[in-house]
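Quick one: co-fold with iron/sulfur cluster.
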Amino acid sequence: MNKTDKIKFLRLLYQYRAMGFEYFYDYKPSKKFETTTYLSNDLEAIAKSVKGCYLCNLAKNRKNTVFGEGNIHAKVMFIGEAPGANEDEMGKPFVGRAGQLLTKIIENVLQLQRKDVYIANVIKCRPPENRVPTPEEVGECKPYLLQQIKLISPQIIVALGATSFHHLTGEYDTPISKIRGEVLEFAGAKLIPTYHPSFLLRNPSAKKDVFEDMLKVKAML
Ligand code: SF4
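Sure, here it is.
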């Protein structure tokens, strides 16, 4: 772990302590792709279950759940971290400034329409103040995402940002800056991690890296 990652991790621990956590279970999701058999094989039915889900504390403050949207037969699936304020308001993923940037990337680099791909998040309800979801929250919510991936069965999954990559793969010790642009295997698909559009809004110089990563995606379509 480099110094920046250590500072970020420490900040996260302070946030958790402020929320009342005293310790964590050693949450390490399986690196194998395992879906949960109790979930439906129908995406609409799962979305309905998510609407009525109170498995973690994030249910308390949400306005809407944000299940995901797009082509259920998409070749490309984008997976972000969690809904923000705009997404919580509208019940749709990536509709704020970061979402507009993601749409531009899809249209201008992949030369697809947003409706051609599928977009979802690791977590379906907005964490307060857009904090990083806790391992426990991800542990409760991730089965919905895994079932979405199984049913959509994309050829390519783009993990947007460190939280998405880490929780999908369990590779917590690998910084996104080191792994972005690599073509990995996950759930029978090619997994390409890249930076989150919100990161690009704060660090426009990283757009060229994402452009390169998306050209790899385009070449595989
Ligand atoms: S974040 Fe996921 S697990 Fe938590 S209440 Fe929302 S849908 Fe349920």
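If it helps, Residues 200 and 206 are 6 Å apart (CA to CA).
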